[in-house]
Amino acid sequence: MVSGPAAARYALLLAAVVSGGCASLSPTACARGAIEPVDFAGMYDKQAHCIASGLITRRCGARYARLAGTGKEWLDAVGGGDASRQDLRANADGRACALQAATAESTPDETQFRVAISACCRQRWPETAASAASASAD
Fold first, then answer.
1. How far apart are CA 98 and CA 83, in angstroms?
2. pLDDT tens for the chain, residues 1 to 138
3. Neighbouring residues of 16: CB distance < 8 A, sequence distance ≥ 6
């Protein structure tokens, strides 16, 4: 069973292999570099998916962000992780947030972009949604 940062690395590797073969591993480095500076520990899971997807979109492109997110969920499904359609929706929201931030009046620098992505993802996936979902599951 693979989990945590190792699962993310394997998912990125899988996406690279699927998208371009073993000779094309640079997208994996791109995606890893996009999310590396962010501390996801303690973050609401859907916000983390959204933010990671948005950052990968900015740095590596929407196509690769989609492959990376889908690969991560696939690994969760076959590796004993917590695969979720909601995670895929959060990933799609991250790509949309990246597009929204990129089409703002002025092109934001990296810090402004991260702030915009975080705000967009918190708005789309408020932590209260997690509380409501767990309460309705009980």
1. 23
2. 445 666 555 555 555 544 444 334 577 788 889 999 899 999 999 999 999 999 999 999 999 999 999 988 998 899 878 899 999 999 999 999 999 988 875 667 888 899 999 999 999 999 875 555 544 443
3. 24, 25, 26, 27, 28
State the helix-helix crossing angle for 62-79 and 4-20, rounded to 10 degrees: 120
User: Helix, strand or coil for residue 106?
Assistant: coil
Indicate the DSSP class of residue 42. T
Question: Which among 62, 50, 65 has a CA at the least distance from the CA of 121?
Answer: 50
Quote the pTM value.
0.74
Pick from 82, 90, 95, 91: which is nearest to 7 by CA?
82
- Let me know how long the chain is: 138
Residue 37 identity: P
Rounded CA separation 111/38 (Å): 11
